[in-house]
Design goal:
Blueprint lengths: L12 H22 L1 H6 L20 E2 H12 L9 H6 L10 E7 L3 E6 L8 H6 L7 E4 L8 H12 L2 E4 L5 H11 L3 E4 L1 H14 L8 E4 L6 H8 L4 E8 L3 E5 L7 E3 L3 E6 L13 E7 L9 E7 L1 E2 L11 E2 L10 E3 L2 E3 L1 H10 L3 E9 L6 E8 L4 H15 L4 E5 L11 E3 L5
Parallel strand pairs: 1-13, 4-5, 4-6, 6-7, 7-8, 18-21, 19-20
Antiparallel strand pairs: 2-3, 8-9, 9-10, 10-15, 11-12, 12-13, 14-15, 16-17, 18-19
Helix pairs in contact: 7-8, 10-11
InterPro entries: AMP-bd_C_sf (IPR045851), AMP-dep_synth/lig_dom (IPR000873), ANL_N_sf (IPR042099)
Pfam family, one: AMP-binding
Keywords: Ligase
Length: 424
């Protein structure tokens, strides 16, 4: 039995690097031809001159907020141009339109992403294989199947492995338990916090789930404490790091030493807020260039912090490794698998003139995130508190506790999101 999803995972590192960089000029040229936003990003730059990692530094980093703004500008007609639907919706970054894109998804913002007909489009099959999933197994998928691409990410990956998928989605904990007991899936995909909830509900109902022996988690932190919690229940859990824009970026292996970078993409660590690459080992922002011809993002700044690890993984996979998620380069954070942005807090404040200042606190134990919105206001009436709470739910799609404060109570430090959680 093969140890890897593809044998090239163990290819000599120098060989992989040569092959990847040799493909880069053609990929950039094709992206400029089919995605007008990439052509603007590379304006004045000769793709044939991009032959090494150091050459990438001349290309400006495009960050998530810029991608969102490009989409918003085109949707709202701020460019003054008559635009085809694909450019208007995707901000000029997609190389495919309706028909070639099987699905279009919306992430908070809203930001739209295409999914093409390519097998394993989001490239998560490699992570599933490393987590122990194999052909002819049943996968219980508890990522959302509506709006965001998470459900499709895992389903298309499982199909690429030859697995059958039960689309469990989110919520309905009792039904999740009973369905797992009936179907006896070999593994779970979803957030770690939701599987923890399912297993605790199974205990409460007195239902055993002996078939569940592996899991691939994403969307949340997966600290050692939670890994041990699942291991004590006989479940071998692994994590994968990705985004709705890039698909799978890096994944955990049996070595449990960092995350191995996916094939067919170039990952850099740069000084947050800049275009400048950092030396290996330094903590900075993850920036990714993907060779996906359908959605070709070039030097895309994720806003996530990490660092490159030295050497090769003991599992034999030779690609670059990163330490995993080490926080955010900005104040954006992730709560219950959803990104929460400072701009969303500002939108809540905009909707309620009674709010002078607001700060969102994120706290709670691992797998039990809690949000508290502290608001400075001279009006702490119950009616206003209800309306603000509803606005938070509408804007972030998450629930929050509201804490009214007198004017001047919040620190004058510019912070609007304060993540108090510990990932030890």
């Amino acid at each position: 039995m093969t140890m890897y999803f593809e044998e090239r995972e163990a290819a000599p590192r120098a060989q992989r690097e040569r092959g990847l960089l040799a493909r880069l000029p053609d990929a950039l040229r094709r992206a400029c031809q089919h995605a007008p936003a990439i052509a603007r990003q590379l304006q004045g730059i000769d793709p044939d001159a991009i032959r090494g990692r150091g050459d990438l530094a001349q290309i400006p980093v495009i960050r998530k907020n810029q991608l969102l703004q490009a989409q918003l500008d085109m949707r709202l007609g701020r460019t003054g141009q008559e635009l085809a639907a694909v450019s208007r919706i995707f901000g000029g970054f997609s190389a495919i339109g309706w028909g070639d894109a099987l699905r279009v998804f919306a992430s908070p913002g809203p930001m739209y992403e295409p999914e093409s007909a390519r097998a394993d489009y989001w490239r998560f099959a490699r992570a599933l294989f490393a987590a122990g999933f194999r052909s002819k197994q049943l996968v219980h998928n508890c990522f959302s199947y509506h709006f965001t691409p998470a459900g499709s990410m895992m389903e298309t990956a499982a199909h690429a492995l030859g697995c059958t998928v039960f689309p469990g989605g989110i919520g309905q904990t009792d039904q999740q338990v009973h369905t797992m007991a009936d179907l006896a899936p070999a593994g779970y995909t979803g957030t770690p916090s939701f599987l923890k909830i399912i297993l605790e509900k199974a205990d409460e109902l007195g239902i055993a789930l002996p078939s569940l022996r592996r899991a691939l988690f994403s969307g949340e932190a997966f600290p050692p404490s939670l890994q041990h919690w699942f291991a004590e229940r006989g479940i071998d859990g692994y994590q994968a790091y990705g985004s709705a824009d890039l698909g799978m970026v890096a994944y955990e292996t049996a070595a449990r030493e960092g995350l191995v970078v996916n094939e067919d993409l170039i990952l850099e660590i740069v000084q947050p807020g800049s275009n400048t690459p950092l030396a290996d080992g330094e903590v900075g922002e993850i920036v990714v260039t993907t060779l996906n011809p359908d959605y070709p993002l070039v030097r895309f700044g994720t806003g996530d912090l990490s660092a490159v690890m030295p050497g090769v993984s003991p599992c034999g996979r030779s690609n670059m490794r990163i330490k995993g998620w080490m926080g955010r380069a900005d104040q954006t954070t992730k709560v219950r698998g959803m990104f929460v942005h400072p701009e969303q807090v500002a939108e809540v404040v905009r909707r309620h003139p009674e709010i002078r200042k607001a700060r969102l606190l994120v706290s709670g134990a691992v797998g039990a995130d809690e949000m508290t919105l502290r608001v400075e206001t001279t009006d702490s009436s119950a009616d206003l508190m209800v309306r603000i709470t509803e606005s938070v739910r509408d804007v972030t799609k998450l629930r929050a506790t509201l804490e009214p404060l007198p004017v001047g109570a919040l620190p004058n430090d510019g912070k609007v999101i304060d993540d108090l959680r510990s990932y030890e």
